[in-house]
Every structure is written in structure tokens, then in C-alpha cells.
Amino acid sequence: MADEKKNGLTVLVCGGGNAAQVATAMFASRYDTYAISLYADEGPRWKQAMCGRWNDQVNGMELTLDTGKKLISMPSDITNDPSIAAKADVIILAVPSFAHGQYFEAFYPYIKPGTVVACMPARSGGDILFNAKMKEKADGLAFVGFETLPWACRFTEWGKRATILGTKGSILAAVTPESESTRAISILQGLLGVFPAITKSPNNLGISLRNPGQVIHPGVMYGRWCPDKWDGKPVADKPLFYQGVDDFSESVLLGLSNEVQDVCRKVESLVPGFSLKDACTLHQWYLDSYKGQMADDSTLRKSMNTCSAYTGLTHPLKEVDGGFMPDLKYRYIAEDIPTGLCFTRGLAELLEVPTPTMDKVMTWGQQQLGKEFLKDGKMAGANLGETRAPQAVGISTKEEFFKAAKIC
């Protein structure tokens, strides 16, 4: 009995979308939990929405779990004031990856030593960006990069009710510095519950290079809408995104995936004993992630074409006179190139690894966005600062990258 005591924990959840509302409701049922959104007036609007809970006799947010059970909880506060970070033992970022830097910068003056900061998901280069924004404070913090979100979820009444549609059985996460892994993962597992089980990945670089979105989304978009495959005119029908992958798109995806693997092998050759085992090929990622859900998994194309999880999903489109036009500024390009492919391409440049497929896809993608990431074959474009490329935070050699990534 002498060892028993009140163990307080303060959690700060960032964002106001589906995952942020689910996380806030779940964690607030057990711990002192705050929510913050730096997006426009989202925080005050959410707080105002919570005030209406009293009118329908529900004291707080209502979260319906995938087990059918319901939780009712009330966050301690919902705000847009970043100084709230000073109270937090754990900070959960459930916001789009392009917004991570904004939150890191805002929290820098206030964050306290020992805080665990987890990004769900981290996408590519999250740890490098975190260290750059946290400056001298970074060594006293624990950064956790998750491969993906723990749940499929949605809010059913914004700011008031949310639902978990399904929970993953397991989820990969890596901790920087590695010495904080046991403490950080134990805390986060306690927040999430029994599922998903957090599987420790050896390092955040493996999470960064494993990122399937950096290959799938730009690769499939390029494979369908590049000048070699599309005449620029409206299409009559909505093309399927995953089920519509053809031999040409598969060749693009394999090219991107193989170049990621070339980067992995080069890193492992330069850092003896360092493992990037989790940064698998795209085909292996499908085999790991959708086992039993693919009618034919013999090739990458067939795995994508026959995966039941993707049935009926189409390309992002806009309806116009004469049919449909692709939305070439959709997040598949606008987010997955800057916060995914740019990281890997930038690292490849530091390692002197050739990337002809990445260059082709990125050049096309930046043209669609009206941006410039690559310039004259180098990560030196006018919009480089909007990316996760190592060069965007001043890293210009492989030695500087290894130091920033804390892998040697």
C-alpha cells in the first residue's frame, strides 16, 4: 500500500478533426486532457459546441467505441493558446503532417523537459523537423513517430459525438532518442488501451522511409494523369484509384519503391549495425497490412487491384461540363510529395543515390501545385522550406543528417 499513490497525467491533443476529437474524448475519460487547435477559430468553435451538451442531457463528449460501448467525458479545456503546452506530460498531434511544424514552433517556448510528443501519423522526417523546431530543448524531449492512426474513426456530430469504426490490432512506432522508448511507449500504450498493441520500430528513419503514402499516392496519380497517359480532357467515368492501377502505374510504383530501398541499403552500408528492416518494399507493405484481404497478392498491381479494403475508391475528381477532371492539387500530391517524397529524395541526394523515378514524379507534381521543390536536379527550389527535405532545415551533408537523426 505504501507504493500506491495518485499518478496524474496531463494530455494535450492537437487538432479538431476526426482523430483529434476521438483522442480527446477517449483520453479525457481517464486523464486530465486538453485540446488545442491552431487552425483559424476551430478551438473556440469546438468549445462553444461543447457548451450545447447540457441541452441534450449529455455531460461532455460522447465517444462510441468499436465494441459498442460508449464513453462520456469532458476535456479540461479547449483552446488555441499554445502556452497550454507547459502543462502537458504528453502531446498528441492528430493533425495533417503539413501542420506539424506550426505546432512545434508554437509549443517551443512553453514545452517542459521530459514531455512525450507523438505524431499520429508522423509521415516522413517528423523527427528531423521536431529536432529543428525544438532546438536546444530537443535532447530533453521524447519524439514518437507512429506509422499511421490507431483507428478508423469519424465525428458524428462535430465537437459533440464521435465514433471509432475500427481499431488496428497493432501499430508501428519509433522513439527518438531510443533511450526513451520504454517510458514513452508505456505511456502511450496506457492511453490507447489494449489495442492497438504498439510495436516498437528500431528508429524513426525506418518509419519515415516505410511511409507508403509517399509512394502510392503520387505514384498512382502520376501513372494515371501524366502527359503520357492523359490528354488533358475531361473523362466520362470516374477511374478507380487502387483497382485501376495498370502495368504503367505499377512500373512507376515499383520504380519509386526500389529507389526508397536503394536509400535504405546505402544508409545501412554507411552505419554498421543500423537496421531499416521496417522500411520494406511497397509490395511487402501490402502483404503485411492486408493479408487475407487480397484475392491475388502475387504482384504489387494484383495486390492493389484485388484488395477488398479499396473496393470502389476512385481518383480525386471535380465534376465539369463533359465529365470529370482530376483534382491535381488534392492531398495525394499537395501533402504526400512535400511531407513524404521530398524527404526521401533529399536524403537520397545527400547519399548520392540516383532517383530517376522520383525526379520524374516530383517534377510533374510540383508543376501541378505551382511549386518548386526540385531545381536543376537538386533539392533547392523556391518552395523547399515547405517540405520535409533535410535540406529545408539546413542539413547539407550525410554526416549532418545522421547526427540530426541520432543514428550515429
Short description:
The chain is built from 14 helices and 16 strands. The chain has 408 residues and is α/β, with parallel strands linked by helices.
Commentary on this structure:
- The chain is α/β, with parallel strands linked by helices.
- Helix content is 36%, strand content 17%.
- The protein contains 14 helices and 16 strands.
- It has an 8-stranded mixed beta sheet with strand order 5-2-1-6-7-8-11-12, sandwiched between helices. Strands 4-3-10-9 form a 4-stranded mixed beta sheet, with helices on one face. It has a two-stranded antiparallel sheet with strand order 13-14.
- Helix 7 packs antiparallel against helix 8 and helix 8 packs across helix 13.
- The longest helix is centred in the middle third of the chain and has 24 residues.
Q: What is the number of E strands?
A: 16
Rounded to the nearest angstrom, the distance between the terminal CA atoms is 44 Å
Runs with pLDDT <50, length 5+? Answer: none
Can you write the helix and strand succession as a string? EHEHEEEEHEHEEEEHEHHHHHEEHHHEEH
Helix tally equals 14
Tell me the strand percentage band: 15-25%
* Fraction of residues in helix: 25-40%
User: Which structural class matches the secondary elements?
Assistant: alpha/beta
Q: Average pLDDT value?
A: 94
What kind of sheet is the major sheet?
8 strands, mixed
What form results from the Cα inertia axes?
globular
The neighbouring-strand order within the major sheet is 5-2-1-6-7-8-11-12
- Write down the Rg: 22 Å
